[in-house]
DNA sequence: ATAGCTCAGCTATTTACTTCA
DNA sequence: ATTGAAGTAAATAGCTGAGCT
């Protein structure tokens, strides 16, 4: 395949695909988003780098080129390196994996908007895309990924909280067992309290007192639980999901 | 009521790119 | 200076549920 043919293939393929080729020098006149220098020339690595053959093969696959000869590769390099690759303005034919790195300014503005609203309506999306000189789809994807990151972080926080809660409960359980054994050993009159159903007993983590919920109340939701009936009474409730006592 | 369609959002995954040892 | 592993984030594919006809 000669250089002209490669150029035609690139032009045809990229012209209708997600990236368009423009002859240099015309960076100021392009209609799309200029990719960063590392993304120029179809992202081809240095001609003699080990990654070059792999990248060339990928580009040929992308362009559905059948030719497998050195001349085609050379031509591909020659044409691609003499052109600027620009991202398109519309959403048509986005089937390339070429990735645009957002600038600090773009990221900052997106973050600001995300703080205001974690989702965008089509109008907001279009306006933001225009402001950032990105495609609406890119803004949409950014918000999607940002929501996913937020959720992941929250999940990690929740997980850590549950882990600590579990450790606290395990420790309290051990302590209760020890306390029970001591009471049995001493035949303490309050031992009777420990024959309540196990599920109705817990320890208030803030004051470390044994708390007892009447069996009837323990089987219902919190709405009709008895209120504390005075200072020092053992009605402290512990919510394992907030790791805080309701006393 | 329900089947079919569209659309937005989510999740999982891929992959280009960066950073760092 | 180079390289490879690990991390990050943009992009993709596929699924789901809501809303509409």
TrEMBL record:
Protein family (similarity comment): Belongs to the HD-ZIP homeobox family. Class II subfamily.
Transmembrane listed as a keyword: no
Primary location: nucleus
Coiled-coil spans in chain: 159-186
Entry protein name: Homeobox domain-containing protein
Species the sequence originates in: Panicum virgatum
Domain (Homeobox): residue spans on this chain: 93-153
InterPro entries (alphabetical): HD, HD-ZIP_Homeobox_LZ_Class_II, Homeobox_CS, Homeodomain-like_sf, Leu_zip_homeo
Chain segments carrying region Disordered: 14-51
GO cellular component, one term: nucleus
Keywords: Coiled coil, DNA-binding, Homeobox, Nucleus, Transcription, Transcription regulation
SMART domains: HALZ, HOX
UniProt biased composition (Low complexity): 31-45
